Every structure is written in structure tokens, then in C-alpha cells.
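#lab-general

N.A. 3:47 PM
ok so I finally got the sequence cleaned up, no stray characters, all 292 residues accounted for. can someone with queue access submit it? mine expired

B.Y. 3:52 PM
send it over

N.A. 3:53 PM
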Amino acid sequence: MNRLEAGTVVRLQAEREAPFGYFLTDGEESVLLHQNEAAEEIELGQEVTVFLYHDKQGRLAATMKIPVIQNGRYGWAEVVGAVKTLGVFVNIGITKDILVSLDDLPLLENLWPKEGDKLFLSLKSDRNGRLFGRLATEDIIRQISRKAPESMKNQNVSGRVYRLLKVGSFILTDDGFRGFIHESERAEEPRLGELVKGRVIGVKDDGSLNLSLIPRAHEKMDKDSETILSFMESRNGAMPYSDKSQPDDIELRFGMSKAAFKRALGRLMKANKVVQKDGWTYAVANEQPKKQ
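B.Y. 4:20 PM
back already:
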């Protein structure tokens, strides 16, 4: 009979009861099922299905909470913490958090997953039998991903980053499609496990997606318009900037080009939200408040 191994689901028999739980056996080895890990009252001699893991003391233990993620079985696990010298810890649905070693994480710590991010992984054991998270390889993602239809072009999608390369980021979308974001199609590099939202700019022959995290022109204009309105609100509805302002002044104050500023300002004027006069811009609702 195979030795009991952490990360696996097995059927064991209740051998004896203790004040703090039950000892289960396969006939050769015994493990503790703590009272807190038992989903029901157990009779001696009864067979139960349990998941094996190592408790905080490093002892092999059992739980009747069966996680989706097991040795050889993949799923999403939420990141719950990090230790610089070790890696990140994830919650797979049992009381013991699982370590994903820093050896399997990006070299740059700012690209490590943060709390709340999710990783697609299974479990593995080292030579000492200790349980670790195993990140899904590209081959695994290819096996479980769906083939995207051509009609997805220009659609919005969201998904989790599962692989980082210098040339770009790979994600698995919420709908199970595999996507790639070239470095030129993002403002900054997303973290491993981060949830990103983008749009489909191409569907490849193998059914994977080319994605962009850069907003469409009208979406960016909306964001620029919001930036302008927010600044005006902070000044009681008036600002000493207009479509005649100097490009350097606009870049310094708003972080956008003059062309983008003019487009956004034009959109606001067309919507009758602002008016310009004597080099100033005023919120229509406020008419022309005192200049500051």
C-alpha cells in the first residue's frame, strides 16, 4: 500500500477516538483528524474521506474539508500574505495556508502577488514531504483554456495574470480564454495573479487572444474629462486654463498632452458642462465664480 501523502484525498478508517479528535488509519499508518476538522460524528470502524496536509507542527493530519486544489488538480487560490524570505501564502480552503516559494515567483518583488490576488495552481511535495503550491505551466493553461471565436474582437474582457515575460503578460480570462498583453499595450506591468481588464485587439489561429490594457480613444477622453472636472471642483468651478493654454502648463498640471486636453475640454463644452472666457474655464452650473 502507498504511504500516506500530503495533498491527496484518501479513504481511511476510524481506528480510535481521542479527547481532541480521531485517529484514522489505512492499516499501516495513522493520522489525526482533529475534532475541528470533522464534519460529522464518527463511529469507530467507520470509513471517511479526508484530505491530508501538514498541521502547524509539521505533522501529517487529516481534514474532512476537501479542497478543489490537490496534488495534480488545479484551481484558483487567493493570496493571503507574503514573507520576503519565503514567498507568498495562499488559501486553498483548509485551515493551513499553503506556501508558493519565492523560487516560483518573479525576481522583482513589486511583481509578486498581493493580498487578494489569485493564483492558478495545484500542490506538490518536496523531498521532505512538505506541501507547496505549484503554479500552472503554459501547457496546463493550454489544456484547460477554451478556443475564442473571431467575434470576440474588440470585446472587453477581464482575467488573472498567470505568467510574466519581458515581452508581455499572459492572462486567463474569466471565461476561460488564454490571452497575451504585449508590453506596448499596457501602461505598466501587472503583477502575477492580478485581475486586469482590457479589450480584445485580435484573435489568433489557435483561439488565444491578443489584448490591450490601453483605453479606447473615447474612454481615455472620458477619463481626461473627469480629471479636468475634478480639478475645477477643487477650485470652486473655475480654472485658469483653456484651449489657449501652453502645452507645458497643461502637461505639468494635468499630466496629459494639449491635444488630449483640448479633446476632453471640447467634450465638456459640447455637453454644456463648461464654458471658456478670457483664458479661463468655468463650470456652467457655477456660472462664473470669483477667480482664485
